[in-house]
Amino acid sequence: MEIDSVFFTDHSGRIASNILLDQLPSYQSLLYQRRSSGNGSKRKNSSRPRLSSSGSGKWAPGTISRQEEKQKTLMEQRPIRELPKTMNEKRQEKAQRLKKNEDLDSWRQWSQNSRRHLRRLWEDYRELRRSLHLWRGDIHQIEGRFGTGILSYFSFLRFLVMLNLVIFLLIFGFVMVPLIVVRSASGNITYNQSDGSICSNYPSSARRGLVIFHQYITDLLSGEGFLEQTYLFYGFYKAQKISFPHVTYNLALAYLLVTIAYLILSLLWIVKRSATGFKRSLVQDEDRFQSFCNKIFTGWDFCIATETAFKQKKSCLLYELRTDLEEERIKQKIQGRTRKEKLRIFSIRFLLNFFAVGFLAACFYSIYLATIFSQTAGRKNIKVNFFVDLIYEYLPSIVITVANFVTPLLFSFIVKFEDYTPAFEIRFTLMRCVFMRLTSIGVLLFSLWSQITDCGENSCECGYNYKLYSCWETRVGQEMYKLTIFDFIIIVAVTLFVEFPRKLMVNYCRCGLAKWWGQQEFSIPDNVLQIVYGQTICWIGAYYCPMLPAICIIKYFFIFYIKKVSLIHNCRPATRPFRASRSTFFFFVVLLIGLSLACVPVIVSVAQIHCSQGCGPFVNYTISWEVVPDTVSKLPDGVRNLLYALSSEAFAVTFFVLTCLAMFYVIALAGAHKRVIK
């Protein structure tokens, strides 16, 4: 008996058992092709019975005939317009179906017609849902002109709009609506009344008397004045309970639970969306030969519809091939390095990284000083003129923006001397920029908290510096509000006053400097870092500024059209290509890092810092988290004991052990599949 060179067989000639191999679509396709080729030729082993590799009879002749019948039934159920046939064949198919239906009884005819109508309704619903997607036409236009790489950025922006919409609906529905409804319904609000202590004093910041017009603009940009004690900020929600005729609504508990809910929802949604990109990145983590084959034979983007995009895609593929060859050359060079050369390279990298760390430390210290100076100027109520006052208000945001602009240029320059591979250069520079952008927010919050918790020579009777910050949560919310507004202003200003003049200079100026400078590149990583930075601010600020998600929705809505117009008229696609699958995974990894960073200040505020006694829903508590055990203690005994058991150490240890076992099983299964695929 011949030994099949493709399939594993045992001594009897049957296909050997391999459960994992059975699950591979390619293996099952080969089985089917082997059967077809065996029936069409006079091979010696063509009469060998088909059995499953697991011995279950899956590929026995009877099973195959049943599968063919099932496949034929599915083809008959498909709409005629979807069949891969000519018009004459479709007409014949329709006549055959009508004739076949005439032979059926009334019950079967009704059943088939019902299934057909339900299938059409489902298809119409899916088409309607696709047509309702935000920016559907604009995204298709971008995809056709610039390919799927740049498309992934705009799809990511749409995802953030939908995420912020859900977050805002949560906050609006469970925190704002009860306060709005109770004023028009037959209910009453139990406010957290002032107990007469110095801690409960929260003076109004509204301007009185004759107010100059530009002061309203200052208030609008800084969140102070007439905006401070509105639905926009934490301090407005000074209500303990909202009583309706048959129910009492605990606003403090709802405020805290909504914060936890939107963080958990964001985590789950990001993990779900990043799973697809993670699978693709694993598949594309191939060896170098397979990488060359994929670029040459499957690297073309068939969504491209313009000649400019065609030329750009061609140059991108050429750049990828050159990059791969350069990486191969560098790898061979690394293997041939002597000990002296390795010592020299490591010394250069150590010195450059030491310089980078020192520069980052200088940037963080500058942010700290700017925050302290801005808070001091606001505390002393220093007023010079409109523009100087705005600079004082936005000084931390200005320093953070300047640092975020300078550091990527510096990192891109020094990484050239560290002798990394081209692919690692990009990743390493991006991670440095991510660290800089996200950590700058943490430094700003640390600077604020150092002022809030520092009572100076006075004793901290309230647990915080009540003389300077009567409602410190609102003050933090105002800083997050200013960061969001200033980030949007910078994006608009760069588009109007940098990218557009640069495009005019390149098109109409014939000097060599303009040609060397060239047109602005639409860098996908830099633009993604910019909106991830803004989204991290939104996650942090939503606790202190509940309306911030709505502001971010409006901000991202305008950013989409600003970036679209800039991409079409001012910029050109980047020379370094960014694949859609890899970029999508990268986007969500960076977003996940931003979410992790955003959780830290919120957790510290809820569980560590003494909450304000003059504003907000947690006036009657030392820290915000105390509302949870206080509410649990008032529940029935059975529910309370269940919650205590779920929060106990025994349950936590058991859950952790089971999670680890499940994780080890999944890792082992993935390793087994990977070995079989190889």
Distinctive features:
678 residues, mainly alpha, three-stranded antiparallel sheet, 69% helix, globular, TMC, mechanosensitive monoatomic ion channel activity
Topology, element by element:
Layout: H1 19-22, H2 25-40, H3 61-77, H4 87-102, H5 106-131, H6 136-182, E1 188-191, H7 213-222, E2 239-243, E3 248-250, H8 251-283, H9 288-298, H10 307-335, H11 339-379, H12 386-393, H13 395-414, H14 422-452, H15 472-508, H16 512-517, E4 520-522, H17 524-544, H18 548-570, E5 571-573, H19 580-607, H20 627-632, H21 637-646, H22 649-677
Parallel strand pairs: 4-5
Antiparallel strand pairs: 1-2, 2-3
Helix pairs in contact: 6-8, 6-10, 6-17, 6-18, 6-19, 7-12, 8-19, 9-10, 11-13, 11-14, 13-14, 14-17, 14-19, 15-17, 15-18, 17-18, 17-19
